[in-house]
Design goal:
This protein is mainly α and 373 residues long. It is 71% helix and 0% strand. The protein has one domain. It is built from 15 helices and no strands. The chain is globular, with a radius of gyration of 24 Å. 44% of the residues are buried. This is EamA domain-containing protein.
Length: 373
């Protein structure tokens, strides 16, 4: 009597052991087939934002860090945005050239791309400079979460530009979402003529207490939003006709050249050598993460619609709040939380009411119209 249950248990164990791996393998195959492969572009974009957040933190520290130099006993000299861009993009361009050299047989037209696309690749690099400079400048006076939230206008602006340039639909829901996102930015910036003079801000590196500097940072950040949105449009037009690494190379080289000219021409921007291993590490980290970020970003955008792909930038928000709290012990204000809810809510609503039918890619013969625009 006592052995019957034992036999039953032993008989059932091999069946469960044999079937479980098959069921598990089938579940993985279904997951890959139904969700991963159709959304591989989104996976690339989400991974790209992780490396983007590491770049943002490094930039914020370099621009605002006042750590005492043990050699001189004085605070470290902050590094300007143009110099950070020069360091980051020169390393990124070197990485892109090395990548193309190693894989030159599998990358058509490397390193300059097809002759007919070079003007578009150069345009991608030019507007990309404004996109990244806008964020880097705003980080000097805004918290990471506020500076990143301003960049969240990019999906709304991208949808608008996609309607004008790529002839994609621009629905009433998307128009409403764009206006709501602008309201969210106002709540984040809190201009003094609407909210009065701030009373609870300090002079910590996390955020400037000067409303004028906050507004200036916001305006430059909005210029960056326009540049970043234009990048999405140009990359969508280029599509798969140019390898992703060629686009990264054009972008990094263009920003390197523009940053070098700015450092030489603008009197207020003085070149400063990094002091100590801390600043050197942060600059090298910028270049390495920048290369990985740009590669994953370009690969993701090429596989997704402009509006849907740019919405993945919202994953930066989680990282931004974590960095503000852990590094500077600075929680977003109530207005920033409200602006965050407005912007994210507007994007969620636009995604919910997006057109169901697929939107066709622009034919190649539209190049004349795009050049005129």
């Amino acid at each position: 009597m006592d052995r019957a249950p034992e036999i039953g248990l032993h008989d059932s164990s091999p069946v469960q052991h044999n079937e479980s791996p098959l069921e598990y393998q089938g579940s993985l195959q279904r997951l890959s087939q139904d969700y991963l492969k159709p959304n591989i572009g989104l996976v690339y974009l989400i991974a790209a934002q992780l490396f983007n957040s590491l770049m943002v933190v490094s930039t914020k520290v370099l621009e605002t860090d006042k750590t005492i130099d043990p050699n001189t006993g004085k605070p470290l000299t902050p590094i300007k945005p143009l110099q950070i861009l020069l360091a980051r993009m020169s390393i990124t361009y070197a990485g892109a050239l090395l990548y193309m050299l190693i894989n030159r047989r599998s990358i058509p037209d490397a390193p300059f791309g097809a002759p007919g696309l070079r003007i578009w690749l150069f345009l991608r690099g030019t507007v990309g400079f404004f996109g990244v400079f806008g964020l880097y400048f705003s980080l000097m006076y805004l918290t990471i979460s506020d500076a990143v939230l301003i960049t969240f206008l990019a999906p709304s602006v991208t949808v608008l530009l996609a309607a004008l340039v790529l002839r994609e639909r621009f629905t009433k829901a998307e128009a409403t979402g764009t206006l709501a996102s602008l309201l969210g930015v106002i709540l984040i910036v809190r201009p003094s003529f609407l909210f009065g003079q701030p009373e609870d801000l300090d002079s910590s590196p996390a955020e400037s207490a000067d409303p004028g500097k906050r507004i200036l940072a916001t305006l430059v950040g909005l210029l960056g939003v326009l540049g970043a949105s234009t990048v999405y449009i140009v990359l969508r037009y280029i599509g798969n006709r140019a390898h992703a690494i060629i686009s990264v190379a054009y972008f990094s080289l263009t920003v390197t050249i523009v940053s070098s000219i700015g450092i030489l021409v603008i009197p207020s921007v003085q070149f400063t050598w990094p002091h100590g291993p801390r600043q050197w590490f942060l600059l090298i980290n910028l270049g390495v993460c920048g290369f990985i970020f740009q590669l994953l970003l370009t690969m993701g955008i090429q596989k997704e619609r402009a509006g849907r792909g740019s919405a993945m930038s919202y994953t930066q928000l989680i990282y931004a709040v974590i960095w503000d709290v852990t590094l500077w012990h600075h929680w977003p204000s109530k207005w920033s939380w409200l602006g965050m809810l407005v912007i994210v809510g507007a994007t969620a609503a636009v995604a919910h009411y997006k057109p169901k039918e697929p939107i066709p890619e622009p034919p190649l013969q539209e190049s004349t119209e795009l050049q005129d625009i």
